[in-house]
Amino acid sequence: MKKIIGLAAAGALLLALAGCADGGGGGTEASGPKDIGDLVVGFAQVGAESGWRTANTKDIQDTFKDEGIELKFSDAQQKQENQIKAIRSYIQQQVDYIAFSPVVETGWDAVLQEAKDAGIPVVLTDRAVDSEDTSLYETFLGSDFVKEGQKAGLWVLDEYKDATKPVNIIQLEGTTGSAPAIDRAEGFADTIRQNANLKVVASQTGDFTRAGGKQVTEALLKSNPDVDLIYAHNDDMGLGAIEAVEAAGLVPGKDIKIVTIDAVHDGMQALADGKINFIVECSPLLGAQLVDVIKTLNDGGTVEKRIITDETTFTQEQAVEALPDRKY
Ligand code: GZL
Ligand code: ZN
After folding, report:
1. Where in the chain is the domain with CATH 3.40.50.2300?
2. Tens of pLDDT along 109-157?
3. Is 22 exposed, middle or buried (0-12, 13-18, 19+ CB in 10 A)?
4. How far apart are CA 159 and CA 161, in angstroms?
5. In angstroms, rounded to a whole number, what is the distance separating the alpha carbons of residues 56 and 43?
6. Of 62, 82, 84, 79, nearest to 71 (Cα)?
7. For burial by CB atoms within 10 Å, which of 94, 244, 273, 288 has the most?
8. Distance 278 CA to ligand 2 centre (A)
9. How far apart are the CA of 43 and the centre of ligand 1, in A?
10. Is the dihedral angle over the CA atoms 102, 217, 225, 251 positive or is it negative?
11. Looking at the domain covering 31-143+284-310, what would its CATH class be?
């Protein structure tokens, strides 16, 4: 008889433990780690402006699906007010975590404070904010854009090291006020400054889109007849620039060299085809690292304030090699 009672008690204990394991325990008791399957994450994406963004969105959505974590997702069409609205709606819905890629660096302190007051941790992915108070977010997970600009600048320095006359450069800037646009311009300028022949004769935003890159290049080629190189802050604007260069009867990659950043499929194809000369990689595959951050925080752990993604660069020959295995 004793044995049976003992077994029953053990069974009851197991059931109780199982109860909270499937999140059924829930309720207002001390917030220990939630069961992964019960987490709800709100993600406020920038938009769908480029091949990079599309790959970034797909990777995040696929990763969360594979992990069985519920992801609420919004596309802000590159408007800050839409991202702020989305973050506020996630706060209302009392999600467990908020992650977003700030379309521009400024103007986030108020809504981040609201998330903090609501006890919802925020993770920055891809782009940075300029908030002085770093307690407003758990970490910034993404590339070092200054370094990306420097890598592009180093290739230009090398390409024109024997230049005896001025090298005229057009710069196609990313979204005005965005961390990548600010930092890629800074890194590039800091690097090419070593050779006085290298001159940025015109610089304008193409808003990271192919159409923007084409329109701006058409205009700048008209007002700057003798251009040697186009430095585009992303592949998509570089692909638009190729169309404009060809429309002007010139050969992209030869008459006018082109350097871009991202290394998405279409950019790598143009590089392999010789229409782009060099690409600095910026990885959009942030999904796995974002899930790791959330799991660590959910287990009561802490994460580094800054997690930098590692990435490389590609020449035309390297693009031919790499293309078959590229995931995006
Ligand atoms: C960079 C990302 C940029 C890409 C662009 O991490 O924010 O935005 O370089 C994208 O292609 O539009
Ligand atoms: Zn900055």
Report:
1. 31-143+284-310, 145-282
2. 999 999 999 999 999 999 999 999 999 999 999 999 999 999 999 999 9
3. exposed
4. 6
5. 12
6. 62
7. 244
8. 24
9. 16
10. positive
11. alpha beta
pTM of the entire predicted model: 0.90
SS3 121: coil
Query: What tokens does 79 get?
Result: 């408007």
Domain 145-282 of CATH type 1.10.10.10: no
In what order do the strands lie in the sheet containing 40-45?
Answer: 70-75, 40-45, 97-100, 122-125, 139-142, 306-308
The answer to whether 293 and 309 are in contact (CB under 8 A) is no
Hey, how many other C-beta atoms are within 10 angstroms of the C-beta on 279?
Answer: 31
Q: Is 214 in the pocket of ligand 1 (CB under 6 A)?
A: no
Q: How confident is the model at residue 327 (pLDDT cuts 50, 70, 90)?
A: confident
> Would you say the CB of residue 100 lies under 6 angstroms from ligand 1?
no
Q: How far apart are CA 217 and CA 199, in angstroms?
A: 17
Give the residue among 137, 148, 138, 212 at the shortest CA–CA distance from 180.
148
* Cβ–Cβ under 8 Å, residues 108 and 87: no
Ligand nearest to the CA of 213: 1
Q: Is residue 151 in contact with ligand 1, taking CB distance under 6 Å?
A: no
- Gyration radius of the chain's alpha carbons: 24
Contact 74, 82 (CB under 8 A): yes
- Which atom of ligand 1 sits closest to the CA of residue 262? 9
Q: What is the mean pLDDT of residues 176-188?
A: 98
Q: Is 282 in the pocket of ligand 1 (CB under 6 A)?
A: yes
Let me know: does 132 contact 115? Beta carbons within 8 Å.
no
